[in-house]
Design a protein that fits this description.
The protein has 25 helices and 9 strands. The chain is mainly alpha-helical and 558 residues long. It has one domain (59-557): Hydantoin permease (Orthogonal Bundle).
């Protein structure tokens, strides 16, 4: 398969180059024509209401309010269920998840290990990937430029105090991920060949049908699926390939144009090799890429943190002080809070429902087992990686001689850049890059590789999200499957070669639009999550009681 894809790309390259030359300037014309609609759509999704003199997007209010409710209702699962999540990812309960606790531990006569091994072939739980693979796939869809450039934007606009509210929003988002991913497994479909079909489309339609809201469920599911397909082509694909191309071109000193087109072809071939294999191949790739790229980024962050360890108390002092007593020019307390919450919500996508599509494919008989695993996702994405990025930037901006900021935070209202006394401006990914380079010379090159890997993993994860939504809308046939994958790869090339800012703006807003149908469904279905959590915790308790009575831990043999 790889040889055929490579040969095809080589044969098509001259034709594609000709097509690009023939269509030079078309992207700008499309951009100009589409921009008014894109601005309208973005404005609609980001419709704001005034709070404390500030305009707060309704989508952010919905995300934060829903997350806060779930956190309180489920008794702070981000803390109380964290140990269970770690144990589940490590495979401590894999035996009961495959076979059910009643079969293994709720018997007067314990089963022999050999008997258990023989049952694996024909009685294991439905699913296609492990807990870790599902988590890696979902994390790869959220960890990316939001953690690198997004944090820089938050700090530039809201100062160090925005970091505190990003952490709080990440902790609250853990409860939302727990709810949506538990529902994703509970209401998934299993095909005759064992293929899993899951996500908000299914728990909105099937879950609301079980509550007598069939019509509402179908409408919400359909709306979500359409938005998710659009988001997969735009924010989850074209935007990612565009940013990866910009970084690659900058690294090797090339301009855009045909170079971007060629880079797009290469990216499309690489993405195609992965996505043609389906969720199993995607999971195998992401379980390697995500720990690798996150490991490099975290290691570099730790090096900088330890190199500035003498300023660690000053950095956290600025974070806490800025969270409640913001410096002049930041728009006050509510301004800092809103900036932090908004950037965190955009970063971890808790409430958008996209991650539930990946988590639905896990092998388990207990939906809540994947729900507790999913709550680790915002913790990794926002609480850990975003906080480390923030500390690196804060250290970069501390003048050790007099403990003053080199660049002024929030110097211009609404500005997403830092401004020095001499008028020098810096922001976004450049700010993060310079912060790393200040301690690790040349790390900007490594950061470029990390950004490309982030973009690549995001694209392959979103290809799966979009494909599942596409199948929900157009059926599960091979022709529909192939058509979506071809369109997805075309958008990889478009994103790399074009400057369709309006299309990307429109598609990016689609990711946020997913919140409206998804959160409405979560608020109607959360009692089902409570029942599933009780069932899973009861199963764990029965296993622990059996082990205390001398029963062998059968998870060691699976």
């Amino acid at each position: 398969m790889k040889k055929y894809l490579l040969a095809t790309s080589v044969l098509l390259l001259p034709l594609l180059n000709f097509a690009q030359e023939a269509t030079k300037g078309i992207d700008e014309k499309v951009n100009d024509a589409f921009m008014p609609f894109a601005v309208w759509w973005e404005g609609l999704i980001l419709t704001s209401v005034p709070i404390a003199g500030l305009s707060v997007p309704l989508v952010v209010i919905l995300l934060v309010a829903g997350a806060t409710f779930f956190t309180v209702y489920f008794k702070f699962p981000s803390i109380t269920r964290f140990p269970t999540a770690i144990s589940t990812v490590r495979g401590k309960y894999v035996d009961i998840e495959k076979h059910g606790v009643a079969k293994l531990y709720d018997n007067e006569e314990p089963l022999d290990v050999d008997d258990i091994q023989r049952t694996i072939r024909d009685e294991s739980a439905a699913g296609e990937v492990s807990h870790f693979q599902a988590l890696a796939t979902a994390v790869s869809g959220t960890v990316g430029l939001g953690n690198i450039a997004g944090v820089a934007v938050a700090i530039a606009m809201g100062g160090p105090g925005a970091t505190f509210w990003m952490i709080i929003c990440g902790l609250l988002g853990m409860a939302t991920k727990f709810v949506e991913c538990t529902l994703g497994v509970k209401y998934r479909d299993v095909g005759d060949d064992g293929t899993i079909y899951g996500g908000p489309m299914y728990y909105l339609s099937k879950g609301l049908k079980s509550r007598g809201m069939t019509g509402l469920g179908k409408v919400l599911a359909g709306v979500f699926a359409v938005l998710c397909v659009g988001a997969s082509f735009g924010g989850g694909n074209a935007f990612q390939s565009n940013q990866a191309t910009v970084q690659i071109s900058s690294l090797i000193g090339l301009e855009g144009g045909s170079n971007g087109f060629i880079i797009g072809i290469i990216l499309a071939v690489l993405v195609g090799i992965v996505i043609i294999g389906g969720i199993k191949r995607i999971a195998k790739i992401t379980e390697k890429i995500v720990p690798f790229m996150a490991g490099i980024y975290v290691l570099a962050s730790l090096i900088i943190i330890f190199a500035n360890i003498s300023y660690i108390d000053d950095a956290f002092g600025l974070i806490f002080k800025g969270a409640f007593s913001p410096m002049a020019g930041l728009g006050g307390f509510m301004g800092v809070l809103i900036v932090g919450f908004q950037r965190a919500a955009f970063s971890n996508e808790a409430g958008a429902g996209s991650a539930a599509i990946a988590h639905s494919a896990v092998k388990t008989k207990y939906p809540a087992s994947e729900g507790v695993v999913a709550l680790l996702e915002p913790f990794i994405d926002t609480v850990v990686i975003c906080t480390m990025t923030a500390l690196v930037i804060i250290f970069f901006n501390i003048d050790g001689a007099n403990m003053q900021s080199v660049f002024e935070y929030g110097a211009v209202e609404g500005s997403n850049v830092l401004i020095s006394a001499t008028g020098e401006q810096i922001g976004g990914v450049d700010l993060t890059s310079e912060a790393f380079d200040s301690v690790i010379p040349g790390f900007s090159y490594v950061l470029t590789i990390a950004i490309v890997l982030f973009a690549f993993s995001t694209m392959i994860s979103w290809s799966y999200y979009g494909l599942q939504s596409w199948k929900y809308l157009f059926g599960r046939g091979q022709v529909a499957d192939l058509l979506y994958k071809i369109l997805f790869l075309v958008f990889v090339i478009i994103g790399a070669a074009a400057t369709l800012d309006a299309v990307i703006k429109f598609s990016d807003a689609m990711i946020l639009a997913l919140v409206f149908p998804n959160m409405l469904g979560l608020l109607l279905l959360f009692p089902r999550v409570r029942d599933e959590m009780k069932r899973y915790l009861d199963a764990i308790s029965k296993k622990q009681e059996a082990l205390e009575e001398g029963h062998e831990d059968l998870s060691k043999h699976l």
